Amino acid sequence: MNRSSNVTDPSSAVLDAEPAPLLRVEHLSIDLPGPAGQVRVVDDVSFTVAEGRTTGLIGESGSGKTMTATAIIGLLPAGAAVSGRMAWHGEDLVTMAEQDRRRLRGRGIAMIFQDPQAALDPTQTIGRQVGEILRRGGMPAKEVRRTVIDLLDRVGIPNPETRHAQYPHQYSGGLRQRAMVATALAGSPQLILADEPTTALDVTVQARILALLRRVRDEEGMAMLLVSHDLRVMAHVADEVVVMYAGRICEVGSGREVLNSPAHPYTRALVVSVPAVRSKTAIAEPLPGNPVSPAERPSGCPFHPRCAKAQDRCRSEVPQMRQVAAGRQVACHFPEEA
Ligand SMILES: Nc1ncnc2c1ncn2[C@@H]1O[C@H](COP(=O)(O)OP(=O)(O)OP(=O)(O)O)[C@@H](O)[C@H]1O
Ligand SMILES: [Mg+2]
Questions:
Q1: Which residue of 60, 63, 242, 296 sits with most ligand 1 atoms within 8 Å of its CB, as the best mutation to test the pocket?
Q2: What SS3 class is residue 323?
Q3: Which ligand is nearest to the CA of 244?
Q4: From atom 18 of ligand 1, which residue's Cα is the shortest distance away?
Q5: End-to-end C-alpha distance for the chain, whole angstroms
Q6: By three-state DSSP, how is residue 108 classified?
Q7: 173 CA from centroid of ligand 2 (Å)
Q8: 251: which strand partners?
Q9: Which of 2, 153, 173, 181 is deepest in the core (most CB within 10 A)?
Q10: pLDDT by residue, tens only, the chain of 338 residues
Q11: Whose CA is nearest to atom 1 of ligand 1?
Q12: What are the start-end ranges of the H helices in the chain?
């Protein structure tokens, strides 16, 4: 990508200081067929993932995180209707032909799923699955074997010569997730989508997988979109954070700033529900109320029924995203001082 080609844009001098956007999601909306008709599960979502950086996607269950990631990798469920743009190297993933999407999958953009058990084929050896993309790319069998063993070694799977010939059931949960990371790395993608890559694992294994993802990002310079509702994870890994609520974005900014001084009442509620994010001694305050499903999105600001600061305007008028500080956007009529 040529960063200096944008000479007509007066802001390019400023933007050049930042890593160039690799993926630019613009006004992405996703409608899925539900029992009572189409439901807008992702509504007008815009954010970027910069080259070599990690963007974190947070929000409660049902907020649309997985659907957003699934749209990027191009594996939405049948019947999904997508609008908006996803700019990738001058192309739009939304309108890209399926054949080109397939070519991109694994090579340009790879995804690590929450449940490696479900994502791995129980009838195929780990080595075969990790090496599939290499084989499909025409690499000779011997070289595939060597590359796979090297990949397994790189993601910290011990005895890779033995392990590559084993099946998923012979792997522990943590090793399976490492194998998924190896599978994602096999295609040398520029962007890895990691959807709750650690929630199925116990805490110590979680920490190791996260350290692995961080190392991968730093060593290989890959960008990452990390989906998690674990703010402790985000505080460690995300350069940029995107907060979603009921299918919409309510706050975007640098990970440190958003988590240290949340501007949206929802982000604030999330942050104070996890004491370790802010201070080791603070008492966690549980989030008030329940998450709303996009099928029953309230009028105005979707968070208003749970918001202590809500006023009449919040019930009637949808707050638009607006800049409250450099690189910081919030969709709230009455944001906290950022
Ligand atoms: N295949 C599907 N068909 C119809 N609706 C779906 C489908 N998958 C998910 N949804 C709905 O889309 C909305 C967004 O779901 P999504 O899986 O993106 O949430 P999420 O933020 O990833 O939640 P979680 O933290 O639980 O993983 C939810 O309301 C969900 O019920
Ligand atoms: Mg999800």
A1: 63
A2: strand
A3: 1
A4: 64
A5: 33
A6: coil
A7: 19
A8: 243, 330
A9: 181
A10: 444 444 444 444 444 467 789 999 999 999 999 888 999 999 999 999 999 999 999 999 999 999 999 999 999 999 999 999 999 999 999 999 999 999 999 999 999 988 888 889 999 999 999 999 999 999 999 999 999 999 999 999 999 999 999 999 999 999 999 999 999 999 999 999 999 988 878 878 888 888 888 888 888 899 999 998 788 888 888 999 999 999 999 999 999 999 999 999 999 999 988 876 555 556 778 888 888 888 889 999 999 999 999 999 999 999 999 999 999 999 999 998 76
A11: 77
A12: 12-15, 65-73, 98-104, 116-119, 126-136, 141-154, 160-163, 173-186, 203-220, 231-237, 255-260, 265-272, 275-278, 312-316
- Ligand 1 atom nearest the C-alpha of 32 is 4
Q: What ligand is nearest to the CA atom of residue 30?
A: 1
The CB of 61 under 6 Å from ligand 1? The reply is: yes
Topology at the third CATH level for domain 3-96+227-330: Rossmann fold (3.40.50)
Q: What is the pTM of this model?
A: 0.90
Contact of 183 with 121, CB cutoff 8 Å: no
Give the distance (Å) from ligand 2 centre to CA of residue 206.
17
Ligand 1 atom, smallest distance to 114 CA: 27
Type of residue numbered 130: V
229 lines ligand 1 (CB under 6 A): yes
The Cα 266–Cα 157 span in angstroms is 39
Give per-residue burial for 5-32: e unless 16+ CB within 10 Å, then b: eeeeeeeeeeeeeebbbbbbbeebbbbb
Select from 60, 65, 68 the residue to mutate for testing ligand 1; criterion: most ligand atoms less than 8 Å from CB: 65
Give the Cα separation of 135 and 147 in Å (integer).
11
